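Good day; I would like, with your permission, to put a structural problem before you. A protein sequence and the structure tokens that stand for its backbone fold form the material at issue. The record follows directly beneath this note:
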Amino acid sequence: MVRLVLTSIVAAALCGCAARNFKADNPVVGPPPPRIPNRTALADTDTAGEKTALGQSTVVQTGAVGPSANKQPLPMSAVAARVNGQPILVGAVLADKRKLLEANRSQFTAAQYRELQEKMLQERLPMHIEQAMMVAAVKAKLKPEQLKSVEEQLDQQFGEKVELMRKQMKVSSVAEVEAALQQSGLTLSMMRKMIGDKALAEQYMLTKLGDPPQITAPELRAAYHEREAEFTEREQVKWQQIQVSFKNYDKEEDAEAVAKDALKALKSGTSFDQVAREFSDGADAEHGGHWDWTQLDSLAAELQEPLRTLPPNKPSGVVRTPNNLQIVQVLERRDARVRPFEEVQDQIRQELRSQRQQDLAKEIIEELRATTVVETMFDAPTTADSASPAEERPSSKRFSANSRQGS
């Protein structure tokens, strides 16, 4: 039972705590930390006693890592990136995937496994870097007593979440929760760090974003006219079909005979539903050959004319197409139209507001990035790095930490 519910509980925990607000005197809108004057290689600044690793334990891998000819799997304690000198460990980035990775490790060679790790890191590291930049900006703004108050509130929220996890997992102690987490490559301290950083980053972004942008009536109208094609609905019909496929008969004449019998039954007054169930081999024959609203121009050309012109509930004659014979009838018809402004204005307003918030979030991240030193294991080596042949150095492959905030 513990293993069955653990994944969903962890996901809920990571979302739940981070969504709750905390209080501190003065808004968290301060400047990012100052730029580190000299770039230092990732591995050169690792120390076993370092206590500030982002989202991971205090044990830090001291050897340099990076894409190289040495394709051994990355240890979870290896440094994937540094933000203003503070490490983000491989284990933090891959925390929620560690159990999956380990379960499938035997299917890969060491080089293939390393390649998989690197691919996942490249996909997930940008979000962790952006979060680390925002957390650093928050902590640079808060006074020590404010930060202590925030951490205490986060501790309380996390304690409540752990107790809820314990109950959901139906175990008797927090130690058992910890043991279950460790099977997935997590610890309570790691989860607390991840949730705390997520909460701080979200608070930073929400404060910087401010109130939702206001969209004026002229802006709404202009957007509506620009997107008129998007709000155009083509001609549609709700209809029924009796289909007799040539492939189901030895000769086309046999199929024609069946279609004629179906048409004869309709003319004698038998309902279209009943005739479809008896004669049709179409996809929905057993339900009377009913089709829901369908764009007319998406149907076979031979069917468009009768479905466009026939009065409702009047069967067509036998219509020949390249692969079958059909009898159709219209139940309802919708003419082509452009949805009116009044019908779509709320949708347009929300989409414009969302896009502007995304654009602003990207600007906020770029402002942070401009005054933040970010190093990753995927960076190209500098001249100074290349001058030291004693260590394994990254390849020339660049890593782009594109913004994902607000998306």
Remarks:
- The chain has 13 helices and nine strands.
